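Summary of Year 1 activities. Much of the first year was spent building the evaluation harness for sequence design. The harness presents a backbone, in tokenized form, and records the residue chosen at every position. We chose the following record to illustrate the format because it has been used consistently in internal testing since the harness was completed.
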């Protein structure tokens, strides 16, 4: 039986229902092994009730997912729905260029602007034409190599593909600035971001990136997820542990594991992590200071959560205090007899007169 590896990238193709319909079609063609490529589609998979079908157990990048599937599958299909066919093709090209030579066929199914199939290597399989006929898909030629990293005298420049004026630009989940044009380049030197050509740099954002390698960093622009959904909540087992999520929202699933409480640092981190924690049924204590950029819309907050809003510029300061004095520099601690309220009281005590507002959900 044909073994089909499927790497589904991003929430849009899941929210649109196309991923679910595609998997039903593929199940009639062979043995399907679907995984999520990237971290931000997890909430969409859960909301669609597909978590038992699509593997969301890890947050591998799309290329890493392809490599993981390649040895055990006959073909691998990368499924995406970009902002446009051009950005979808640019995404596929970036993924392909970072891969070693693959003996198995690698195809992309791009749903932006219709339904297109792209061959990314020279390996051929009848599956390609069979799928094209079933989906009535257009065959699109793979685009030439995109202009990627430019490294000169210790300075690295990386273009942001498919960016639109007004969109926020993130590096490894941290907002580093806003695009002011459709041509944007991130500039770094010595592992630090120093500029954003075609955009406005956010100094408070780049301070959170202690060291960045632009050759491997995850760079995005625009809204992470824009669908209006009713979140599904998975069953949660009590563990007696609390964790801290400090500007690492995309790693929420790995960090929380079976925790009962999460302390979250940062405005956008609180919004993104809160949305994911809602699906896991884990309440959180958010530490914010009002500088949210709005990289995700229509987010949810886990019931029983508390968001502490500090006076501007203080979330990182209090976050460090919490990490050191409550968590002892570790990411996970056992919860005392007072549970959630005891941790909340400790956080508020450390924040002191920096607290502007406390909101319960």
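For this record, the design step produced the sequence shown next.
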């Amino acid at each position: 039986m044909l073994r089909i590896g499927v790497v589904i990238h991003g929430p849009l193709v899941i929210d649109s229902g196309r991923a679910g319909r595609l998997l039903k079609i593929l199940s009639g063609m062979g043995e399907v092994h679907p995984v999520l490529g990237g971290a931000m589609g997890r909430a969409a998979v859960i909301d669609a009730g597909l978590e038992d079908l699509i593997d969301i157990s890890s947050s591998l990048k799309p290329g890493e997912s392809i490599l993981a599937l390649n040895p055990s599958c006959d073909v691998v299909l990368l499924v995406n729905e970009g902002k446009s066919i051009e950005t979808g093709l640019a995404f596929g090209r970036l993924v392909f260029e970072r891969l070693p030579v693959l003996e198995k066929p690698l195809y992309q199914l791009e749903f932006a602007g219709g339904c297109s199939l792209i061959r990314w290597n020279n390996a051929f399989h009848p599956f390609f034409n069979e799928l094209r006929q079933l989906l009535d898909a257009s065959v699109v030629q793979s685009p030439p190599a995109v202009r990627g990293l430019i490294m000169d005298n210790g300075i690295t420049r990386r273009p942001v593909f498919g960016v639109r004026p007004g969109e926020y630009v993130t590096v490894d989940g941290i907002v580093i600035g806003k695009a002011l044009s459709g041509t944007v380049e991130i500039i770094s030197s010595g592992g630090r971001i120093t500029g954003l050509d075609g955009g406005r740099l956010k100094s408070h954002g780049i301070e959170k990136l202690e060291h960045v390698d632009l050759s491997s960093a995850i760079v995005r622009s625009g809204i992470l997820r824009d669908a209006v959904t009713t979140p599904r909540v998975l069953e949660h087992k009590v563990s007696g542990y609390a964790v801290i999520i400090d500007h690492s929202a995309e790693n929420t699933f790995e960090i929380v594991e079976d925790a009962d409480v999460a302390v979250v640092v940062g405005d956008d981190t609180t919004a993104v992590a809160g949305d994911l924690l809602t699906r896991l049924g884990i309440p959180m204590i958010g530490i914010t200071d009002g500088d949210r950029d709005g990289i995700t819309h229509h987010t949810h907050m886990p019931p029983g959560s508390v968001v502490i809003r500090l006076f501007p510029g203080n979330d990182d300061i209090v976050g460090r205090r919490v990490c050191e004095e409550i968590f002892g520099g570790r990411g996970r601690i056992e919860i005392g007899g007072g549970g959630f309220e005891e941790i909340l009281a400790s956080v508020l005590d450390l924040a002191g007169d920096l607290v502007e507002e406390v909101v319960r959900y």
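The radius of gyration is 21 Å. Quantitative recovery figures across the full test set are reported in Table 2.
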